[in-house]
Amino acid sequence: MEFLVILIILGVIGLAVVLVYNRLVALRQTTHQAWGDIDVQLKQRHDLVPNLVETVKGYATHEKETLENVTKARQQAIDADSLKGLAEAENMLTGALRQLFAVAESYPDLKANQNFLSLQTELADLENKIAAARRFFNNAVAEYNTAIEQFPAVILANPFGFEKREFFEVAASERARVETAPEVKF
């Protein structure tokens, strides 16, 4: 009788360990998938930038520094080797693209060019997709990080290699721009 009770208790504990472990694995996989979604969107963005630069180059030949800044920022984003480095590089690329579009405002023929308009629309669509993918990733990371810190999962997390993940955050300079309401003048 005592042996049966001990066997049942061990079975319940074993089942709990398996359930907690499987949940942590599923949450970790969700963060990997969410990161993969961001990576795909960023790759599309990186592929679009050279076409945009070439289109602008045809109209704004004396804006060499702006074009070089966009190209340099794109390459830094491609070469980034950490989440923090990638976030910083992507924020630099966003700033460089914003500067490129500001230059484009000075060229009416460029603003009317169908190829430029198409690329601009495609980039805006990609920016929206990237923002959505970032939100999904950060949500998945928050859920995963919370799960590995909660009891009883915290007991299993470290021994089985479940480590906290970093969020994909906007840089402080970008955060100030995003949080500030645009000024409207008539």
UniProtKB/TrEMBL annotation:
Record's InterPro entries? Answer: LemA-like_dom_sf, MamQ_LemA
Q: What is its main location?
A: membrane
Question: Would you say which domain of life the source belongs to?
Answer: Bacteria
Per UniProt, subcellular location reads as: Membrane
Keyword annotations for this protein, in alphabetical order, are: Membrane, Transmembrane, Transmembrane helix
Span-the-membrane segments of this chain are: 6-25
Record membrane topology = Single-pass membrane protein
Membrane as a keyword?
yes
Q: Name one GO cellular component term.
A: membrane
Q: Which family does it belong to?
A: Belongs to the LemA family.
In Swiss-Prot or TrEMBL terms, this protein is called LemA family protein
Q: The organism's lineage?
A: Bacteria, Pseudomonadati, Pseudomonadota, Alphaproteobacteria, Maricaulales
